[in-house]
């Protein structure tokens, strides 16, 4: 009994409630297992030798009277030892030993866990009901099992696929890459989980689908490879949604990097191709390029529109009908409708629109030649204001644009429109700032004979640069170039304030270093007077200024700078020099002192002041070879020299520059007369005589009365308030200049004397009789000067050397 029971156990061990026993040729129980006893309640001694029908209900006996062959699992009613019936499943397998036939029977409770049945149910579900694509391939990649209900197979692949190569069943999905991946799983036994593969299933051969694919190796109990199971899921919608999200994120970072309409339109086209369309054209209303915009709402179909950008996918042979910047003359009706209602348009079949070929045959031909079959037109609007339109075209063997593509294009266009509108507003403000700036800069060359000057103001963005040419006393001239960072009206206004302040300080005959110190104090005070977050405070701070004074009598030029670039000097023989002018702190960002450098210049030397360096690394040899000759050629106008410098500057890749050129002149010896007189009241008469004699030499006798009075008053004041020799100088330039220099630093004051006063009317009389007068100071002493207008004939005869 125990031996037979052990034999049964050894032949068929199982887990759970599977009952195993063996029947002989007559159908009697020959072996009985403990699992059988547990299931039916019979001990081995009660069933051994009994016919199997004793274990079944009466209705099942006839059907189970004999077992002739192996049978699949059948559902039966077995009788428990206590009399109740059990719903079981029976599976019979033929055993042949020593020419003796027996049957091995396995009973499983139908209401219990049937692992084999679960496996069968799982297999049926995967191969007949699963929404996933499931294919079982053998080592030759032939189809052995196939889920006919899977995506891409419904209605196109049937039972005839069994036994065929996978690439023949679905050539659009199983390509060389897919086969290589499957074979790698077969060879390595390592599964591949959730990789994306693009293909065209038999059910939709005209469109690309994206699949998430998992490949699992199939092995028997000994580990021998039986094939692979390929499970796939169509994730095309999810993939497209992710691509749209990625495209929108990319658009947020790549569109609107500058405040330029053309650049922003080009960025929209670059982002859209080829992610959304095969080629894109962006057109913008002409007013937008000038900073203007139409009122919110529809725009007339007659509005002037210009092409702003065009972009085609790489390898696509398509030519734009209009180049960027050209006017787009007409549009087909469905495009102009966007101007009227500001709504996007989707045209799935472009060939159906006959109006296009009639209105614009040239554009229609180019579009048709590229194989275009679908188109979207999306208005570029911001805050209800129409700015332009973006046209998206599709040409390749993918399907036409759909509604979700139109939604994506609309979102891209909305982002681009906001950036274009920002660029438009910037253009408007910048244009106004440029107009203000130009109105604040010199409009013509002031009258002076010290230098021949020319200037250029070439700007791409900054409106804070300025220059000036200021005639000052003694026939001298001040040259100024400054730079203030900014692009707004505020920057232009602050630039004007700085220029006015320099003109005022220059009129006081301050030395260059002293003038910059006063200007620094002014900027500092203005910056501190505003809150830190006020734009005025940050606009002025950090301004730079180069200030030079040239004296055509001594031919010496004095330079000082608050930051900024050092001047460039080109001698008449072509030698290029960079004076070592110490760079003081920018205005408002540090404390003086500012230092000066004085250079003696031969007549015909060129002084170059600019806001952008013309030499690289401070090396004079890097100046273009032809510029020195152009700048110092006395027979070539300075305007031509300016143009040559600008061309060389642009060729170097720079964009903005403020340039001031000055070619030095000199007053001839016959235009200057100077005397040194002792500090003696008796020399007043001598001084008058010397002055009148010189006026006679200049044929300016009509100026003698006034000149005598001026000389008498100035020399008398010098004798009264100073000690040491007195220097008298007459200069015949555009005006007659009378200068008296003494060793005193006491400033003279203009007084209004009473009728009873015996004196104090000297400077008052000089102020009434001259064009202007003033005082300038030197390291020792001062010079009082007065200018008289020359008679017209004399003025025309004055020619500098």
What does this structure look like?
33% of the residues lie in helices and 26% in strands. It folds into 5 domains: 2-113, Beta-Lactamase; 127-234, PAS domain (Beta-Lactamase), CATH 3.30.450; 258-429, 2-Layer Sandwich (Beta-Lactamase); 442-664, Phosphatase 2c, domain 1, CATH 3.60.40; 669-797, 2-Layer Sandwich (Heat Shock Protein 90). It is of the alpha+beta class. The protein is built from 23 helices and 31 strands. Strand 9 (209-219) and strand 10 form a beta hairpin. Strands 17, 18, 19, 20, 23 and 24 form a 6-stranded mixed beta sheet that branches. It is elongated and about 170 Å long.
Quick structural summary:
Helices cover 33% and strands 26% of the residues. It has 801 residues and is an alpha+beta fold.
Helices and strands in order, then pairings?
Layout lengths: L1 H10 L7 E5 L5 E4 L1 H7 L3 H4 L10 H4 L9 E9 L5 E13 L2 E10 L5 H15 L3 E5 L5 E4 L19 H4 L6 H13 L3 E8 L9 E11 L5 E10 L1 H19 L6 H12 L6 E7 H4 L15 E8 L20 H9 L3 E3 L6 H6 L1 H9 L4 E9 L2 E10 L8 H38 L10 E8 L7 E6 L5 E7 L5 H19 L4 H17 L6 H6 L3 E8 L4 E7 L5 E3 L5 E2 L5 E2 L11 E5 L5 E5 L16 H6 L5 H14 L5 E8 L7 E6 L5 H15 L6 H18 L4 E7 L2 E8 L19 H8 L2 E6 L4 E8 L2 H6 L4
Parallel strand pairs: 20-23
Antiparallel strand pairs: 1-2, 1-5, 3-4, 4-5, 6-7, 6-10, 8-9, 9-10, 11-12, 11-15, 13-14, 14-15, 16-26, 17-18, 18-19, 19-20, 20-24, 21-22, 21-25, 25-26, 27-28, 28-29, 29-31, 30-31
Helix pairs in contact: 8-9, 8-14, 9-14, 14-15, 15-16, 20-21, 21-22
């Amino acid at each position: 009994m125990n031996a037979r029971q052990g034999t049964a156990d050894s032949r068929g061990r199982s887990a759970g409630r599977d009952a195993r026993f063996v029947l002989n040729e007559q159908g009697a129980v020959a072996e009985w297992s403990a699992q059988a006893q547990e299931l039916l309640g019979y001990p081995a001694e009660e069933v051994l030798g009994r016919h199997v029908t004793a274990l079944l209900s009466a209705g099942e006996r006839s059907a189970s009277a004999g077992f002739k062959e192996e049978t699949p699992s059948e559902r039966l009613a077995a009788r428990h030892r206590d009399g109740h019936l059990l719903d079981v499943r029976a599976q019979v397998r033929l055993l042949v030993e020593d020419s003796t036939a027996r049957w091995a029977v396995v009973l499983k409770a139908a209401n219990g866990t049937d692992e084999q049945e679960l496996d069968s149910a799982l297999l049926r579900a995967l191969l007949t009901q699963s929404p996933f694509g499931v294919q079982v391939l053998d080592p030759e990649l032939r189809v052995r099992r196939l889920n006919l209900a899977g995506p891409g197979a419904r209605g196109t692949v049937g039972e005839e696929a069994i036994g065929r190569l996978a690439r023949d069943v679905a050539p659009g999905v199983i390509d060389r890459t897919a086969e290589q991946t499957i074979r790698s799983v077969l060879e390595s036994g390592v599964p591949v989980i959730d990789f994306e593969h693009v293909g065209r299933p038999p059910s939709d051969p005209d469109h690309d689908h994206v699949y998430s694919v998992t490949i699992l190796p199939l092995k028997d109990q000994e580990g021998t490879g039986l094939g692979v199971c390929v499970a796939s899921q169509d994730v095309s919608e999810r993939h497209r949604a992710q691509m749209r999200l990625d495209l929108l994120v990319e658009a947020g970072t790549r569109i609107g990097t500058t405040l330029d309409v053309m650049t922003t339109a080009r960025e929209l086209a670059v982002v859209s191709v080829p992610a959304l369309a095969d080629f894109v054209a962006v057109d913008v209303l002409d007013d937008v390029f000038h900073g203007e915009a139409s009122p919110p709402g529809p725009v007339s179909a007659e509005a002037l529109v210009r092409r702003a950008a065009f972009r085609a996918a790489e390898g696509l042979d398509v030519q734009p009908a209009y180049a960027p910047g050209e006017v787009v003359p007409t549009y087909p009706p469905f495009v102009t409708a966007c101007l009227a209602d500001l709504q996007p348009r989707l045209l799935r079949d472009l060939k159906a629109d006959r109006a296009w070929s009639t209105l614009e045959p040239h554009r229609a031909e180019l579009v048709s030649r590229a194989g275009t079959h679908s188109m979207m037109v999306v208005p570029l609007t911001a805050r209800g204001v129409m700015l332009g339109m973006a046209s998206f075209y599709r040409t390749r063997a993918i399907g036409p644009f759909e509604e979700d593509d139109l939604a994506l294009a609309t979102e891209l266009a909305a982002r681009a429109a906001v950036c274009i509108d920002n660029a438009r507003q910037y253009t408007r403000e910048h244009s106004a700032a440029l107009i203000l700036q130009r109105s604040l800069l010199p409009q013509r060359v002031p009258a002076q004979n010290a230098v021949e000057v020319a200037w250029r103001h070439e700007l791409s963005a900054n409106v804070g640069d300025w220059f000036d040419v200021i005639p000052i006393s003694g026939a001298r001239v001040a040259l100024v170039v400054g730079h203030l960072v900014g692009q707004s009206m505020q920057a232009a206004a602050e630039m004007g304030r700085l220029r006015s302040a320099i003109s005022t300080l220059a009129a006081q005959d301050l030395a260059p270093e002293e003038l910059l110190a006063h200007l620094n104090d002014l900027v500092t005070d203005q910056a501190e007077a505003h809150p830190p977050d006020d734009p005025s405070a940050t606009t002025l701070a950090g301004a730079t200024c180069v200030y030079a004074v040239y004296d055509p009598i001594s031919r010496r030029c004095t330079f000082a700078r608050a930051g900024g670039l050092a001047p460039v000097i080109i001698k008449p023989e072509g030698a290029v020099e960079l004076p070592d002018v110490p760079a003081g702190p920018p205005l408002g960002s540090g404390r003086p002192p500012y230092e000066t450098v004085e250079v003696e210049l031969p007549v015909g030397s060129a002084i170059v002041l600019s806001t952008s360096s013309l030499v690289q690394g401070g090396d004079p040899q890097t100046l273009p070879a032809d510029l020195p000759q152009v700048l110092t050629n006395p027979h070539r106008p300075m305007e031509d020299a300016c143009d040559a410098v600008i061309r060389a500057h642009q060729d170097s890749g720079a964009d903005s520059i403020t340039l001031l050129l000055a070619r030095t002149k000199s007053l001839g010896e016959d235009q200057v007369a100077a005397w040194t007189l002792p500090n003696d009241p008796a020399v007043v008469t001598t001084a008058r005589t010397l002055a009148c004699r010189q006026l006679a030499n200049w044929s300016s006798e009509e100026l003698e009365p006034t000149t005598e009075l001026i000389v008498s008053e100035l020399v008398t004041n010098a004798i009264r308030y100073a000690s040491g020799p007195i220097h008298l100088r007459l200069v015949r330039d555009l005006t007659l200049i009378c200068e008296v220099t003494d060793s005193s630093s006491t400033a003279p004051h203009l007084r209004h004397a009473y009728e009873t006063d015996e004196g104090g009317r000297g400077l008052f009389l000089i102020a009434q009789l001259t064009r202007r007068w003033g005082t300038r100071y030197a390291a020792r002493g001062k010079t009082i000067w007065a200018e008289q207008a020359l008679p017209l004939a004399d003025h025309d005869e004055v020619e500098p050397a």
